[in-house]
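TL;DR need structure tokens for one chain.
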Amino acid sequence: MEARGSAAEDLAKKLAERSTGAGSTSDLSSRTEILTRLRERMVGFAASRYTREAAEDLAQEVLVVLHEKYGHLDRLEDLMPLAFQILRFKAFALRRKAVRHGEHIQVSVDDFPLAGDAPDAEIVLARKELLARLSTGIAQMGKRCKELFRFKLQGLSFPEIRERMGAEALNTVYTWDHRCRKQLLERMGGGWER
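>> reply
TL;DR here they are.
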């Protein structure tokens, strides 16, 4: 902030020297005061629409334009409307650039951090508990149900399971599957979720 304030004072000194030649101290101080007040008003106006940092940058750019093109103006009444007109042009240009670059819809990474690849600890714990309950439930079941679940986990279809288990009809395998799942559910406490 101090650097920006001193930049306005440096600019005022250069403008005063340019307009008056060598520049007297009273002209220099009045010019510095005018530009400091002008800068404060521009920053206040721009800060109501943009961030404080962007507002200070816009005000600094306006002061540079005033120095380069309008060094002959030295009254606040002359500089104020001109400075605000330049400020509006600069603000519109900043907005157009932000839209063009897609910056107006960007979200800060700090606000929404990227999700990691690792699963949530709660999900991992719930999955471990479910797996332990499934293992305990299957261990308590009969031989046929254990074999049926093993074939299903291997990815075999029901017709393939029928052949491996020696069942006469496919509907028999469906019935075994239904009964085994029902028994497993009962052994797990009546529900898949706790």
